[in-house]
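Quick one: Ribosome-recycling factor from Aliiruegeria lutimaris, structure tokens please.
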Amino acid sequence: MSADYEEPDVADLKHRMDGAIKALKAEFLTLRTGRASASMLDPIQVDAYGAMTPLNQIGTVNVPEPRMITLNIWDKSMVSKAEKALRESGLGINPVVDGTIIRLPIPELNEERRRELTKVAATYAESARIAIRNVRQDGMHKLKKAKSDGMPEDEEKMWHDDIQEMTDKHIKLVDATLEHKQEEIMQV
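--- reply ---
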């Protein structure tokens, strides 16, 4: 007897849940913790030659010391656009222009700003949890369809438990990642 139902693709579900974790970690890298990190500039785009371009594609980003980022712009005509993009980015950094080099001194975070950043981190984590639960829901829909197509109940229960276990594991990973990031932000 051949099965007329399709088993859920658990590897695909795991890959998608891992993607949510990876996206969360990338978002966390953009949060300023009082230490300089080149990844802080990743979300900033500049209008270069008629197209929105990431800052790191119009110059070299360096972190010469723990509280300083430098951006060496290759094309002199892009310096003012890069400076404008940095000022409007919401990072709270005041760029200092010196020829084609833009220095970004990272100010010490005050208590209020640290608390705000922990809330932002929590928002990012909640988005990741929602993405993971959506992947779970997709898996459960496929499982329900497989059951209606003839999957035995004990097999359906096994897949259901596997998907739920994977979901719980990924949610715990989000929580642990958030806790670590919040500790890092609150560190003086």
